[in-house]
Amino acid sequence: MADKQQLIADIMGAQQRLQQVIAEDRTDPLFSSHLTLSQLRILILLARHGSVSGSELAGMVGIGAAALTGMIDRLVVQDLVARAEDPHDRRVRRIALTRAGKDLIASIFNAGEEKMRTLLSRLSAEELEVVAQATALILKAADSGEA
């Protein structure tokens, strides 16, 4: 049996190849969205945190409020985010995903899921059992802080 380091290298190489195969699919909604990396990051943060103030979002993204304003303006024009008055402080504008923004992020996240489901469906029940056991072991290592 190969030593542990070689097995880890083999697994990492296979995982990278799998990521490449999935990334080569140009039907992925990420490729047709025309979002910049910063805009995508904003949408992902809003999907995770919900409605946030402009200053909170600027802090999460790591940019100034002025730079954020321009990015949010472009996302508003695309109907992906909306600004609204904070119900507790009228001076604060909250930013949240619109229905179109939620749908876009969901389609981007789910695209990888569908691809993986298709790949897994090509395996036999016995092979799926091996994958399930391996996945459980990886999750166990991650949960124990060894990752």
Tag the structure with descriptive keywords.
mainly alpha, three-stranded antiparallel sheet, 3 strands
User: How far apart lie the N and C ends?
Assistant: 23 Å
Strand tally: 3
How much strand?
A: 5-15%
Structural category is mainly alpha
Quaternary state, please? single chain
Radius of gyration: 20 Å
3D structure, described in words:
- The protein has 147 residues and is mainly alpha-helical.
- It has seven helices and three strands; from the N terminus they run H-H-H-E-H-H-E-E-H-H.
- Helix 4 packs across helix 5.
- The chain is elongated, with a radius of gyration of 20 Å.
- This is MarR family transcriptional regulator.
- It comes from Paractinoplanes hotanensis.
- Keywords: DNA-binding, Transcription, Transcription regulation.
Quick structural summary:
Keywords: DNA-binding, Transcription, Transcription regulation. The chain is mainly alpha-helical and 147 residues long.
Note the topology.
Layout: H1 4-23, H2 29-32, H3 37-49, E1 52-53, H4 54-61, H5 65-77, E2 81-85, E3 93-97, H6 99-121, H7 125-143
Antiparallel strand pairs: 1-3, 2-3
Helix pairs in contact: 4-5
